[in-house]
Design a protein that fits this description.
Radius of gyration: 34 Å
Largest sheet: 5 strands, antiparallel
Helix content: 55-70%
Number of helices: 9
Structural class: alpha+beta
Strand order of the largest sheet: 4-3-2-1-5
Shape: elongated
Length: about 375
């Protein structure tokens, strides 16, 4: 039994070595122009080119988006190493949060009861809110844009590359079989058994090539659905950017109104210790209550509707029936909320600047 097993393994080794040798010979002769090569049809070639473009541009988009989210290449490399080691990334304080803590600490040191100290605290709190918004933006972009692109490259695209490589080896086997058959027929005294073996080998090689070509073609045609999914992910990325920048503008606008209120009270009092000073704290006596800056802040908050907004994932495509509704795409993330007087089977939805009501049965509200 052991002898038979050893003989079988030896025959298989010799067969595999012969196959590899024939592929190498065929490849070399093709490069030298002395052997014919089976050409794929134009449609198949277009599918291959589109897959190669998709792979190249997805890699570039992924890399440059990561650079936008984290400009420091050393930190990106460190995160990459942690990811490969299956370890949790370290939570880092971003630049806005660092600045916010410094401003708050400085304001507390000067005294939050002083005008300058209070202004520093408010500026620091605004920076902390911006830092938190940036953290949410990065997390949302990572989940809804970067991760799907990464999964595509590591999953579907790797499978396509693997099947393309197998197809190329089957193509070399097919052309090598064709070459052997031509040589068997072209001898001065062709032997029937040699020609028959060559024809049998050619039929097997042709069948394997056709089967692999069909598998590869199906995978290549699936790139179209990948493009559609990437488009939805791109919309999610732009929506996250819009939300992030809108939050930043809102925080800074509120802060500007609060700081502007100090300038209206800059001439109040006659504190001699501050009479020679400059800036927003000049002329403010310590006895003047800081509540004088409160009205602008209260007005801003009062102008904001007290509506609880949540994110929701769209389960199915939905076409708006009129201008009061919002068209939906399956798997996209939108912001939803309830409004007074709205039918309980409907929710108001926002996607960037677009707004409209949508049926709740098409949504999965995320907690």
């Amino acid at each position: 039994m052991d002898a038979n097993t050893g003989l079988f393994k030896m025959k298989k080794f010799v067969s595999d070595a012969s196959t590899v040798f024939n592929r190498a010979v065929q490849f070399t002769e093709e490069k030298l122009g002395s052997a014919e090569k089976t050409e794929l049809d134009a449609h198949f070639e277009n599918l291959l080119q589109r897959a190669d473009k998709t792979k190249a541009w997805t890699e570039k988009i992924l890399k440059q988006t990561e650079s936008v989210l984290q400009p420091n290449p050393n930190i990106r490399m460190e995160d990459f190493v942690y990811e490969k080691l299956d370890k949790k990334k370290r939570d880092r304080v971003n630049h806005h949060e660092v600045l916010g803590h410094v401003l708050v600490d400085g304001g507390n040191d000067f005294g939050p009861g002083t005008t300058y100290g209070n202004a520093l605290v408010k500026c620091g709190q605004a920076q902390l809110r911006i830092g938190n918004a940036e953290r949410e933006f990065i997390q949302t972009t990572s989940n809804n844009f970067l991760q799907p692109l990464h999964n595509f490259l590591e999953g579907d695209m790797k499978t396509i590359q693997k099947e393309k490589k197998i197809l190329e080896t089957k193509r070399l086997d097919l052309d090598a079989s064709k070459n052997r058959l031509r040589k068997a027929k072209s001898t001065s005294q062709p032997q029937d058994d040699a020609v028959a073996r060559a024809e049998a080998d050619l039929r097997v090689a042709q069948a394997e090539f056709d089967r692999q070509a069909e598998i590869t073609k199906l995978l290549l045609e699936g790139v179209s659905s990948a493009h559609a999914h990437h488009l939805r992910c791109l919309n999610d990325f732009i929506e996250a950017q819009l939300t992030y920048y809108a939050q930043c503008q809102n925080y800074i606008s509120e802060l500007q109104q609060q700081l502007g209120s100090y300038s209206h009270t800059s001439g109040v009092g006659n504190n001699s210790s501050n009479s020679s000073g400059a800036g927003i704290s000049s002329g403010i006596p310590s006895s003047v209550p800081l509540q004088a800056s409160a009205p602008p802040q209260i007005n801003v908050i009062a102008a904001t509707p007290n509506i609880e907004k949540k994110q929701a994932r769209v389960l199915y495509d939905y076409d708006a029936a009129d201008s009061s509704e919002l068209t939906l795409l399956a798997d996209e993330l939108i912001t939803v909320y309830k409004t007074p007087g709205l039918d309980p089977d409907w929710l108001m939805a926002e996607r960037g600047p677009q707004k409209g009501k949508v049926p709740t049965t098409y949504l999965e509200v995320l907690e």
